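does this look right to u?? adenosine-5'-diphosphate version
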Amino acid sequence: MSALDELPWHALDTDAVVARLATDPQQGLDAAEIGALRTRFGPNELPAARQRPIWAVFLNQFRSPLIYLLFAAAAVALVLRETKDAAVIFAVVVLNAVIGAYQEGRAEHAMAALRRLSSQKARVVRGGREEILDARELVPGDVLLLAAGDAVTADARLIDGAALRIAEAALTGESLPVNKSPSAIAADAALADRTSMVYTGTHVTAGRARALVVATGSATEIGHIASLAEGGGTRKTPLERRVETFGRTLMVVAVVIFALFVAVGLAASLPLTEIVMVGISQVVGLIPEGLPVAMTVALAVGVQRMARRRAIVRRLSAVETLGSTTVICSDKTGTLTRNEMTATALWVARTGEIAITGSGYAPEGQLMLGDAEVAIEAAPDVRRLVEAATLCNDAQVLGPDDRDPHWRTADDPTEAALVTLAIKAGIAPAALRDAEPRRAEIPFDAAIKMMATQHDTAASGSRVVLKGAAEAILALCANVHVGEDTILLDEPGRNAVHAGLEAMASRALRVLAVAEVSDAEIDGRAGIEAFRGRATLLGLIGQIDPPRPEAAAAVATCRTASIRPVMVTGDHKITGLAVARMLGIVRDGDVVVDGVELDAMTDEALSSQIDRISVFARVHPAQKLRIVEAYQRRGEVVAMTGDGVNDAPALVRADVGVAMGITGTDVAKQAAKIVITDDNFGSIVAAVEEGRVVYRNIKKAVLLLMSTSFAEILVLLLAVMLGYPPPFAAVQILWNNLVTEGLITVNLIMDPPEGDEMQQPPIATREPLITRTMWKRIALLTPAIVVATLGWFIVRLATGVPFAVARTETFMLLAVCEWFNVLNCLSDRHSA
Ligand code: ADP
Ligand code: MG
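got this back:
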């Protein structure tokens, strides 16, 4: 089994592949084999872009105009034989670099740890059991399970699959998804034509498959393309850019002040050495050297805090954008609700609605019509409906065992609820699925809102069962099943179905319709369309998905924080509205718009009405993009959630794309800026709060740094203008700005939330780094420091204290002023 990667896997037939890999396509590898293969092939990862070594981070600290300036100052000092000054400047610069490197190293460390948290997962069969593991753990021979939305994390040979489509753009440049199937193909096929293979770096857009891993890590096709290392994650955030522009302006101001000072100094006939040194120290004084490091640390601290509140940041820019978010568009199912479905009602044409008792996935409950139990033996139409819902279904419910004392499911809750219903009705799902084996399927797709399966029937021939969103299914139906008869679905018949549907939806139930097509087969090419006008409606099933208890509170927080919560759901308008009401998302005067109405609206109409829309119902993922853009045209900063492959464009376009950690596909996660690990709306709101805290803390640091900078400059300028010697030596200012402030700002940056972050409006995106309020506070703080320090200096000199002593005292006083200033900067609302 040597040189695994050189075999033409695509050309071998599946039996040969299985034999060569010495694996079992049903049971997978066992622990001993895995251990051996793992040692032999190593972890399944590309030699990653390595973390910068600490010395590189250290050297990087010297790459700033300011440091060049300081070195120039040191050189000037040397030329002027001020060796002591030169040495101090040099020491301070190095110390500054050490502090900077330490902080940055810490920030990088934190980010690396988070990247590991959001690493890729793979679903495999090992030792006869299905499990989800870190993609790093994959070895050749592993049985890989793929479904729509999964990233392919190793090169693998298909052995089994249904309607599998793969997007291979990353590997082959082909922009359209490619159809894949297990049949062997010619050995000389080019990479893009190897339809029996799937490759690392691509992802599944539709269908499902079982495949055997043939190559991992750098042996994969993408590993051969060595340069394809992960795109650099160090792009500057808007805030960082804002700070940079600000810094550049300051540089210019500094040069002007320098010139001014030289002029004033010459006029006051100070010695040239003194003028140059003090001039340089003013430049140093003006520029807030600590700011870039403070920002990096602030963002990193924010990232860590968010992680603690279940929001994993994938792009640093999300941290600050979150603080400016004005609209949160959220999915309903799973994000606002618990995604724990229970079927509580069903509807058949003959009887109308039948209630189902019980809660959760435990199959304890009955079918009730009024006070009487409905026996399935006496209701063949109910049996047919429930059986069809069990066949067109991939879920299983698990009973209490030694691992968990509750009934539960690891599968799609929508489907699991139907299995529970079947057991309550007295139908054994496993036996039924054996009796009518599945021969083909069209997997569920949010774009068509339904799925279809084809079964051999007990009697003869095959039938297709359809299950999905009620209107979508209804649109395919020509007939309806009534009792034991099939009759034409006429206008009154349709009205009756709609009445049944609306009665359930208005109670916040999620309604599925089930239909069948007898004597039919699934044709991969025609898909669902082949059944239009041929299907027979069997009935409706309503499921309750209780709202998350914490969601209503999070919606209320959004209100006080002037953030607009909006529900974007694939579910029915009435269901969406009912849930939105329970949570407080809908308020008087708000409207609900569904996908059809949305398509009918022009962009202008949408933009003008969007302020009143609080629920978008029956939208397909492609429409989410339009919704995001409509908000953005109105200047809103939009957070949008998503989980499916088709959600990716909207997630990328949104200011903050939010992927769901549990139900989200890999594709959605890669498109998103943050991933919410518990799929909870409340965690998005928490992340917004942390974003605001980060921004607020950065502003505190800016305020502190700027008010002291201005004070230093003013003291120097005033003193010299009044004919005094400079109250601070250049090296003192250096020490203060690089060392004292560096340590103090870190405390401001780490400041915990003040608690009222979510009682204020979002941070305006155009807000300058120093706002009007901040200027006012600077105007107040700066003179206080100036009067105190300069006053002390003058008074001490007047009382005959030697110059050196007065200077040192003044410097000490400056540091003390700064301590108090920190207290001032701690909050712009409360007094320390
Ligand atoms: P949401 O989960 O917000 O309702 P989706 O886009 O996931 O939105 O689903 C759209 C609709 O498709 C659902 O409202 C439901 O009617 C239907 N649906 C969801 N899951 C399934 C499934 N497994 N099989 C059939 N239909 C489904
Ligand atoms: Mg869904």
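Residues 226-234 have pLDDT under 50 and may be disordered. idk if thats expected tbh
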